[in-house]
Design goal:
Radius of gyration: 24 Å
Bound molecules: 5'-O-[(S)-butoxy(hydroxy)phosphoryl]adenosine
Strand order of the largest sheet: 5-4-17-16-18-19-20
Length: 637
């Protein structure tokens, strides 16, 4: 048996946390270079960090050369070649599951990479991946990284319109997709959605189709190829492309406060170091553990904590194709027992949805393999936290409430397994290397505890976003211009007497629905596409399962249609423009919107009405037409 070196960056106690935290602040470059040393670099960096938040420009491990897939795969072959890298659980519990060893995954990634090359993709080209949660999705992502192509995964719940917008913005040369997909009781015609999207995308030359459902699909001659045909023509080995630390690894689109989604850019070196380091410490993964993150690879959580973070540490990571309630609300727990899952990472919205089905489903399974439970995506309310802790964790598992963002690339504020404080509804302390602060309205730092403010980061960390694709100014304005010399998260937070952070939620026009992020303007744009609509305003409101629901105030044109028909039509417009996840929960038709004299919609008022607190509208003296508010309050649902 070949000896495995223990990972040098593991934090093993609270004392260790405190020492490392102090080191990371006093000597950030020394702290991060010690960690980076443990990876495989084709050429070492000259300088650890260059940064300037004004521009903004951040470079980590300057001039270092590497390929992240050598770190995820090749370097494990000798010691972990026969260890399971990936376990795949299909949507239908009766279908056969799959297990890939590190060697098998390595082989599949190499062959997929050769298929990409054979179809004209090379270093720097953008590849859009629109696929169900099947092993080929992970393989395709890593295959891109292997040859230096930039992957842009689009969640397969987005509509053809939303997909086309993302393909166009990235100028993707290729799309990788599947024939169809299963998700719970639903079937989705994935390839047909791609075909529709490509009607408006000129940049795409090739579409690689992976077989999943074996449905008949339309294949465009000269453009579309089947993966299983292509792979017959390629060799087994694909050398890993040499990448600069700051070369693009991927683009991932997320919503901001304007109508247009933005392509968050992550680069190779820093992202590798940070996702590996944070995975190991937050989940306290041990060599023989089985780790399961229930997110979709279409979101950052899937990128960082299904694929890269776990594989970089030689972990066994699970991938689940289905949904928590199919075929019944015990599915998560059944799967935990089936594979002996040790770390389980999910979203508060899933916990609340399962809570609503009662504890019996949980108690049908032992769950005795669980060691650490995690949550991500939105604040977890205390009720859900306790339910998770008591019924799932049997009060034996620390809950890591992990706060982070697409832009941060990795977990920023969280407990480290049992080694740092765990308090209901609190993300907790920052990881070593992370320097958060709270600012007041004037942008001054709040030093005291038991205060609330805007959450910012005072110092760069390796996986901070580098730009927004094709629009650096947007990156600067969104994250680096509100307050000088800090990264602005867009979240508000409180710090308790012990310095633990509690995230309150967004302070911008972004709403978080079941952990999915939308700009209110993005949903308004979609609604306004409907021919019957004059104008709309969207706000979030508290929703018992989704965290926030979508409340749309809509002004209609004169229409002969009935109100109920219009409701349905407008909902369909949202599904068509964005996807089913963007359906408004409540639609209120109004004759006007509360505006200031300068024409700005007063969202604060709409929010209060949506929250069911019309008596707390606050100052309405700048309103152009107070009667409008009275009508809205009366008509509220
Ligand atoms: C926003 C980022 C990070 C992966 C999933 C979402 C909210 C995220 C937490 C948490 C409270 C959280 C924030 C953040 N958020 N995690 N543990 N507690 N709020 O990624 O789509 O980029 O959204 O999600 O508001 O800004 P995202």
């Amino acid at each position: 048996m070949i000896e495995r070196k223990p990972l040098p960056y593991r934090i093993r106690s609270f004392e260790d946390y405190q020492t490392k935290y102090a080191h990371s602040v006093n000597d950030p470059e020394g702290f991060w270079s010690d960690i980076a040393e443990s990876f495989h670099w084709q050429q070492k960096w000259d300088k650890v960090l260059e940064w300037d938040f004004e521009k903004p420009e951040v470079k980590w491990f300057v001039n270092g050369k590497l390929n992240i897939t050598e770190n995820c795969l090749d370097r494990h072959l000798e010691t972990r070649g026969n260890k399971i890298a990936l376990i795949w659980e299909p949507n239908d519990p009766k279908e056969r599951f799959e297990r890939l060893t590190y060697r098998e995954l390595y082989n599949r990634v190499n062959r997929f990479a050769n298929v990409l090359k054979r179809n004209g993709v090379g270093k720097g080209d953008r590849v859009c991946i629109y696929m169900p949660m099947i092993p080929d999705l992970t393989v395709a992502v890593l295959a891109c990284a292997r040859i230096g192509a930039v992957h842009s995964v689009v969640f397969a719940g987005f509509s053809s319109h939303a997909l086309a917008d993302r393909i166009i913005d990235a100028k993707a040369k290729m799309v990788i997709t599947s024939d169809g997909m299963y998700r719970g009781a639903k079937e989705l015609p994935v390839k047909r959605i791609v075909d529709e999207a490509l009607e408006r995308c000129d940049s795409v030359e090739k579409v690689v189709v992976v077989e999943r459902t074996r449905w008949a699909v339309n294949m465009v001659d000269g453009r579309d190829v089947w993966y299983h045909d292509e792979v017959e023509h390629v060799g087994d080995d694909c050398p890993a492309e040499q990448m600069d630390s700051e070369d693009l690894l991927f683009i991932l689109y997320t919503s901001g406060s304007t109508g247009r989604p933005k392509g968050v850019v992550h680069t190779c070196g820093g992202y590798m170091v940070y996702t590996a380091y944070s995975f190991l410490n937050v989940f306290q993964y041990e060599e023989s553990d089985v780790y399961w993150c229930t997110a979709d690879v279409g979101w950052i959580t899937g990128h960082s904590y299904i694929i890269y973070g776990p594989l970089l540490n030689g972990a066994t990571t699970m991938m689940f194709e289905g949904v928590p309630t199919y075929p019944d609300p015990g599915r998560f727990w059944q799967v935990c027992d089936k594979y002996g899952v040790n770390q389980f990472y999910t979203a508060p919205t899933a916990i609340r949805a399962l809570m609503a089905h009662g504890e019996d489903h949980v108690y049908s399974y032992s769950l005795n393999s669980l060691k650490v439970l995690g949550t991500v995506g939105e604040p977890i309310n205390e009720e859900a936290w306790h339910w998770y802790n008591i019924h799932v964790g049997k009060e034996q598992c620390p809950i890591v409430d992990t706060w982070w963002q697409t832009e941060t690339g990795g977990i920023m504020i969280s407990a480290l397994g049992p080694h740092s404080p765990n308090k209901p509804s609190h993300a907790g302390l920052p990881l070593p290397g992370i320097q958060p602060a709270l600012l007041n309205e004037k942008g001054e730092e709040i030093e005291e505890n038991e205060q609330e403010g805007y959450l910012v980061m005072k110092f760069p960390w390796p996986s901070i976003l580098r730009t927004t694709y094709g629009d650096h100014e947007r990156c600067r304005v969104t994250y680096f211009s509100h307050y000088k010399n800090v990264y602005f998260t867009g979240d508000g937070a409180k710090r308790d007497k012990d310095g633990l952070y509690r995230i309150i939620g967004r302070v911008d026009d972004v709403i978080n629905v079941s952990g999915h992020r939308f700009g209110t303007a993005e949903i308004e744009n979609a609604i306004n596409q409907n021919d019957n609509v004059v104008e709309s305003a969207v706000v979030g409101y508290p929703h018992h399962i989704k965290g926030q629901g979508i409340y749309a105030y809509i002004i209609l044109k004169d229409s002969t249609d009935t109100i109920e028909n219009l409701r349905g039509e407008i909902t369909e417009t949202c599904v068509k423009e964005i996807g089913p996840i963007a359906k408004p929960d409540k639609i209120q038709f109004v004759s006007g919107l509360p505006k200031t004299r300068s024409g700005k919609i007063m969202r604060r008022i709409l929010r209060k009405v949506a929250e069911g607190e019309p008596d707390k509208l606050g100052d309405t003296s700048t309103l152009l037409d107070p009667d409008v508010v009275e009508e809205i309050v009366k008509g509220a649902q």
